[in-house]
Structure formats: C-alpha cells, structure tokens
Write a structure and sequence with these properties.
CATH architecture: 3-Layer(aba) Sandwich
Distance between the termini: 16 Å
Strand content: 5-15%
Shape: globular
Mean pLDDT: 93
Structural class: alpha/beta
Main location: cytoplasm
InterPro entries: Cytidylate_kin (IPR003136), Cytidylate_kinase_dom (IPR011994), P-loop_NTPase (IPR027417)
Helix content: 40-55%
Pfam families: Cytidylate_kin
Order of helices and strands: EHEHHHHEHEHHEH
Low-confidence stretches: none
GO molecular function: ATP binding; CMP kinase activity; dCMP kinase activity
CATH superfamily: P-loop containing nucleotide triphosphate hydrolases
Number of helices: 9
Radius of gyration: 17 Å
Strand order of the largest sheet: 2-3-1-4-5
Enzyme class: transferase
C-alpha cells in the first residue's frame, strides 16, 4: 500500500514558506493548504463579533463556527489580521478545533501544508519536513515590499517591530510554539532567491521518496 506523501513546510512570516509550498504542490501534483488562513479567518470572525482574539472562549467559538468561505475573504492580510491570527493561534481550544480539518485534508491523498506547527503537531510523521526561515531584517523587508505593492504605505521599521512582536508570541506560546521539528530540514532563505530555495526543497523531497 502506497502511503500518501505529506510535505510539512513550517516557518515564521515572510520567510518564503508559502511561495515554496505552492510551487512544491504544483510540481508534485499534490493538494496545497495554507493553514495560516484558518487562523486568519478565525481571527477575523472574532473581530467581526467585536471580541478580543486573545479571549479563549471567543476564539474557540469562532474556530468551531469557521466556514470554508471565510478563507476567501479579502481582508485576511495586514497588521490587524496578523495580530488577530497570532492571538487565536495561542488558544489550545482553537488549535484542537482546527486540527482535524488539517489532518483530514492531508490524509485524503497527500498534501503540501504550510504553517507553524505542521511538522511538530499536525503531521509529526510527515514524509518530508521543511523549516523555512530567514533573518528578521530580510523578512521585514520582504513584508514591507509586499505591503507597498498592495498600496499599503507603512514604515519599514513599524513592519519590523510588528513582526518581531509576533515572532516572540509564536515562540513562547504554550500551544504548539513555533520551532523546527527535530528531523526538519532547515532552509535559510536570507541570501537565496525563490528559485534556489525551490530547487533545494525539491531535491530533499525527491531524495526522501527514493
């Protein structure tokens, strides 16, 4: 019996994990899931209700009411959405509510999933685990360029400060803190372009399947 391939792609914001995961999924013919959208959509539901994303009860209620259409919203990016997503992601009840969704998605016929705890919690037995990172300065600059391209004028120093705050919250939270799995391949993208990162990752995946 052939075991469905799961590729876990974890890492902090603006390290390049989303771009890499989408390219790997397309190349390998696997479904792709940006698990961060689940948390962003949950955070948005909490904000819509006028509640605090850091309130465990409100956050868990929003997660359990999540609808696939929530992930199609056009307001899931930006500083407010980032903070809300980071808040709800620290709530154990939210992570439990969304865990089954992620596992069911991957087990159907394999998948490439990107997030912050795919290799450590969601699929600890994933066939390939990648942890994509970059220097804080490089990540802040990339996010600033991304926001500027969308017409969102922000000071780069403010973007850097917000990302540093989120990095700290993600690293110290009790529920699934952001860290590489013990058996993850760490890819530092600071000095690499997207094509170089993709080539490295694809070679790791192909080697694991031999």
């Amino acid at each position: 019996m052939t075991v469905a391939l799961i590729v876990a792609v974890d890492g902090p914001a603006a390290a390049g994990k989303g771009t890499l995961a989408r390219r790997l999924a397309a190349e390998l013919g696997l479904p792709y899931l940006d698990t961060g959208l689940l948390y962003r959509a949950t955070g948005r539901r909490v904000l819509d209700a006028g509640a605090d994303p850091f309130d465990p009860a409100a956050a868990e209620a929003a997660a359990r009411a999540l609808d696939p259409a929530d992930m199609q919203r056009d307001d899931l990016r930006g500083a407010e959405a980032d903070r809300a997503a980071s808040g709800v992601a620290a709530v154990p009840g939210v992570r439990a509510a969304l865990l089954d969704f992620q596992r069911d998605f991957g087990r159907r016929r394999g998948a490439v999933l990107d997030g912050r705890d795919i290799g450590t919690v969601v699929f600890p037995d994933a066939g390939v685990k990648l942890f994509v990172t970059a220097s804080p300065e490089a990540r802040a600059h990339r996010r600033w360029l991304e926001l500027r391209a969308k017409g969102m004028a922000r000071a780069e120093a403010d973007v850097a400060a917000e990302m540093a705050e989120r990095d700290e919250r993600d690293a110290i939270r009790a529920a699934a803190p952001l860290r590489p799995a013990a058996d993850a391949h760490v890819l530092d993208t600071t000095a690499l372009d997207a094509d170089a990162v993709f080539a490295l990752a694809l070679e790791l995946v192909r080697s694991a399947r031999v």
